C-alpha cells in the first residue's frame, strides 16, 4: 500500500509540474484538425520583407491573432531551401548553419537543436501548408514590426552584429529548451523568467565568434505535499550568470553554438520568496 501511495503522490506531483509551467516537457503533439474556422482573411494586411511588398499566390490569413502565410513561399523569401516530408507532415528549412523544422498541427518547433513552443500551430489549408509568420521570421533572425495604422507587417534584418546577437539571446531564453535547462539547474518544479540583463557581448577579433554573458532573474517554485495534497508555490528568486557562445556562418547569420543545457550557469543571488514580495 505504501508503494501505491508513493506512486500516486509522484503522479500528482508530475501533473502539478506540468500545470504550473504550462508546458509539456517531453512531447507536444496537438491534434487539432486542419480548419479555417475562426480564421479571418489577411488580404488587407501588407507584408514587407526588407521594405519590399510581398505578393502571395496563396492568401495569408489570421489564426488566433497570428498571421499565417504559405510555408514554402515564406521560407524562400527569407532565403531558405525547403524540404517537405509528406509522411511526417514536416517542413525542414535550411539556410547555411540554420535549420528550422515545423510540423502540421504540432505545438513545438526546432531551431537547430533548440526546442520552442508555438503560439499557433502550422496547418493545412486547401492542400497548402501555412506557418506562423512571426515565429519563422524571428527564428530566421529578423525583427517583426506591426503597424496598426496601415495594417502592415515589416520583416527587417538588423546589420549591427551586437543587436543581432542580442535578438538571438532574447529568442533563446523564451525557448522550451532554456526553460528545461533552468528547471534542471535551479531544482525547481516550476520557474518564471522575470528578466535578463546582458552584461557582456564580446565579438572576437575575427568577427566570426562571440561570447555573451547575461544575468537571468528567475522565480523558482517548489512542490510541497500537505494534508490537502500537493501545491506548487514560489519559494525563492535567484539570479544566475549565464554564459553562451555564438558563431557567424557563411550566410552572415549569428547562431547559437552552445545549446541551453550546455551553457554555463553560475548562481549570483538567492532570495527567499516571502508573501510574494522579494
UniProtKB/TrEMBL annotation:
Record-linked SUPFAM superfamilies: Copper amine oxidase, domain N
InterPro entries membership: Cu_amine_oxidase-like_N, Mao_N_sf
Pfam families: Cu_amine_oxidN1 (PF07833)
Start and end residues of each Copper amine oxidase-like N-terminal domain: 51-155
Superkingdom, natural source: Bacteria
Protein name, per record: Copper amine oxidase N-terminal domain-containing protein
